[in-house]
Design goal:
Blueprint (H helix, E strand, L loop, with lengths): L3 H11 L4 E8 L2 E6 H17 L7 E5 L4 H12 L3 E5 L5 H10 L2 E6 L8 H7 L5 E4 L9 E2 H7 L13 E6 L9 E5 H15 L6 E4 L6 H14 L2 E4 L6 H8 L3 E4 L1 H14 L2 H8 L4 H13 L6 E4 L6 H9 L4 E5 L9 E2 L12 E2 L4 E4 L4 E5 L6 E2 L3 H6 L7 E9 L5 E6 L4 E2 L5 E2 L1 H8 L5 E7 L7 E6 L1 H9 L1 H16 L11 E3 L19 H17 L4 E3 L2
Parallel strand pairs: 1-11, 3-4, 3-5, 5-6, 6-7, 10-11, 12-13, 13-14, 25-26, 26-27
Antiparallel strand pairs: 1-2, 8-9, 9-19, 14-15, 15-16, 17-18, 18-20, 20-21, 22-23, 24-25
Helix pairs in contact: 1-2, 2-3, 2-6, 4-5, 7-8, 16-17
């Protein structure tokens, strides 16, 4: 096996009748594909793509929320000899158009998007001349439909792709400036997949739930790649409203998310069962074991054998909370530029505060300013049409510059301490590193998102978005919320240096979403955008000299 496409052919040949993909259709209905059915559909769509007469190795975009058809279309693009370009469904029309134009996309699969998307909005985002193909469940009908291609074409014969060929262009979320197209080869995808299988020990008996954006490298790696290598089943979430039911339907054995969702799970449990009562029940013989099972079963996580988290650090208190329930959260670290394949904490060997040790065949060292440098078999070919950025991304000895700062312990465990360009200077001439302070703020169940600001002011401050628990407390008892945040502020300030102590916490009324650009599609805070958003009011907030400021 040399590429992921080889695995598709393998399972079609060796386990044709085994269920693979499970797609909800609404109203309790579900469509299931066996390996043979999935491969046949992908090969028919590949034949349809060939019939479009596009130049060899054309870029073809995938713009849709997660679905089984997304995976099949991705395979079809590769089988037809083309290059896939995944787009986040939350992109603005301007950003989507930039990606489609920059990538020189010739065709685009359009699927399920949010209701704000209509024909006029799509037309403003998709350049003229780009062939549109409508996926099943598409929000806006397209001139050429998936089912039309299925009916009109016989399955394309298997054709090998070479490991060093370009497989996909994954555009970074663009935390600063325009998104860059990361060029990923078939060999890089395959190396990352085999390395994950060796550590996680994926097997045909495993089950996964797909719900994170398929345009993000983590979901692309785990769902589109690791599942077909292992031959395990994949279930797709229907919507945000049905997410808990989708989890309970899938009962995944492998489940990876981001800290924000792990925090939401915790808040949901504590909203029904306060922490003090939960602690009492867990301490009781026999009863404690039943409570653990009941809580995890209610979340749909009772079958999970591997629980992972990525994108941002998990507060140690949250790790301890899940461990008390019998669920060991493993933290991973990676980038789009190395297809997510870098570091992972190992089951039974979690060193709290670290992202673990390198995956097989990955080496890591620290460069100047403690920058984390990584060399991996899954490293990108470079940035599309950007030779200068490609050269700047690597050291002379071939290590990828991550832009993250860190430290390594004696066992090689990596602790991330911030971004190399993230620290800012106060008016006192002291540098503040925001990430550790933000992580401390996020340990409160009242806080969902936090961003530390204050460049040019005597002391830093923090702007926070309240969690559902925080918003509920504010509605019930506004003064009580302020008192709780003041106490949390004092706790956080007691753990940092004098020049890092927060002058105040500001509660913003505006949600931070990918649509307004204040977080990325993977919910990382966009520091530059947040700084610009609140620049006009910071001086006023500082002038109030209050420990907690609530935006009017």
């Amino acid at each position: 096996m040399r590429t992921i496409i080889d695995w598709v052919a393998h399972w079609e040949r060796t386990a044709p009748d085994r269920p693979y993909l499970h797609q909800p259709l609404g109203g309790g209905r579900e469509q299931t594909w066996t390996f043979a059915q999935a491969a046949q559909d992908a090969r028919r769509i590949a034949a349809g793509l060939r019939a479009l007469g596009l130049p060899p190795k054309s870029q073809i975009a995938l713009w849709s929320k997660n679905s089984a058809h997304w995976v099949l279309a991705d395979w079809a693009i590769a089988l037809a000899g083309h290059v896939s370009v995944p787009l986040y469904p939350t992109l603005s029309p301007a950003t989507a158009r930039y990606v489609l134009e920059h990538s020189e996309t010739k065709a685009v699969f359009v699927g399920k998007l949010d209701p704000v998307w209509d024909e006029a909005r799509l037309a403003s985002a998709i350049p003229a001349g780009v062939q549109r193909i409508g996926l099943p469940l598409a929000t806006v009908p397209q001139p050429l439909r998936w089912d039309d291609l299925l009916r009109a074409h016989e399955p394309l014969a298997w054709e090998a792709r070479e490991p060093d060929e370009l497989a996909t262009l994954i555009y970074t979320s663009g935390s600063t400036g325009k998104p860059k197209g990361v060029m990923v080869s078939f060999g890089a995808i395959h190396a990352a997949t085999l390395g994950c299988a060796a550590v996680v020990k994926t097997a045909p008996s495993d089950r996964m739930l797909s719900y994170l954006p398929m345009a993000h490298v983590m979901e692309r790696w785990l769902i589109s790649s690791c599942s077909i290598q292992a031959g395990c089943q994949v279930f797709f979430a229907e919507s945000l409203e049905t997410f808990l039911a989708d989890l309970q339907r899938a009962r995944p054995t492998l489940f990876v998310s981001m800290p924000r969702l792990w925090l939401k799970f915790q808040q949901g449990v504590l909203g029904k069962l306060p922490q003090r009562r939960l602690d009492l029940l867990l301490a009781l013989p026999f009863v404690g074991a039943l409570v653990k099972k009941k809580v995890l079963r209610g979340l749909g996580l009772d079958a999970v054998r591997f629980a992972g988290s990525g994108s941002a650090p998990v507060p140690k208190e949250l790790l301890a909370w899940y461990r008390a329930l019998g669920l060991e959260l493993l933290e991973g670290y990676g980038m789009t530029e190395n297809f997510g394949y870098s570091h992972l904490t190992r089951p039974g060997h979690v060193v709290v505060g670290t992202v673990g040790t390198p995956y097989p065949e990955v080496t890591c060292k620290l460069g100047p300013d403690d920058e984390v440098l990584v060399k991996s078999p899954a490293t990108m070919l470079g940035y599309f049409k950007d030779a200068a950025a490609t050269q700047a991304a690597f050291t002379e000895d071939g290590y990828l510059r991550t832009g993250d700062r860190g430290r390594l312990d004696a066992d090689g465990c990596l602790t991330l301490t911030g971004r190399t360009k993230e620290p800012f200077k106060t008016s006192k001439g002291k540098f503040v590193v925001p990430t550790p302070i933000e992580n401390a703020l996020l340990t409160s169940p009242l806080v969902e998102l936090a961003c530390v600001l204050g460049a040019g002011f005597p002391q830093p401050c923090a702007v926070v978005v309240l969690s559902p628990n925080g918003k509920a407390l504010e509605q019930r008892d506004g003064p009580g919320l302020k008192r709780a945040l003041e106490a949390h502020l004092a706790t956080v300030n007691a753990t940092v240096e004098a020049w890092e102590r927060l002058d105040f916490i500001a509660v913003t009324r505006r949600d931070w979403t990918p649509d307004n650009g204040l977080v990325t599609p993977t919910l990382k805070t966009q520091r530059g955008a947040i700084e610009a958003e609140y620049a006009a009011v910071l001086a006023d907030w500082y002038g109030r000299t209050q420990p907690v400021v609530v935006e009017g």
